[in-house]
Amino acid sequence: MTNDEMNKTEADLLISGDVVLTFNEDKEILENGAVVVAGDTIVAVGNSSDLAKEIAAKEEVDADGCLIMPGLINLHTHAAMTCF
Question: What's the pLDDT tens digit per position in 3-17?
């Protein structure tokens, strides 16, 4: 194992590819973006090549040509269910 490999942060999933919609305060749109997940938490969003150098992911998904939209939680709801 090289020093570079030893210095990488461990994560469960690295999704890299085309466009990432961040939905942050500035509504940034990242070209050649990536999302890193550890457990059930998004731990990093940024440039694919930069994150690939920093992250040692157990699983990697190549989403080239796809739109990556992190942080969408429970999008399917019914008005009546909000009362419960």
Answer: 556 689 999 999 998
Radius of gyration of the chain (CA): 15
Write out the H or E segment, with its range, that includes residue 21: strand 9-21
CB neighbour class for 73 (10 Å; exposed up to 12, middle 13-18, buried from 19): exposed
pLDDT (0 to 100) of residue 73: 66
Q: Whole-model pTM?
A: 0.77
3-state helix, strand, coil in the chain (%, to 5): 20, 50, 30
Alpha helices (H) in 1-84, listed in sequence order: 3-6, 48-54
Residue 50 pLDDT class (50, 70, 90 cuts):
very high
Alpha-carbon gap, residue 71 to 56, rounded angstroms: 21
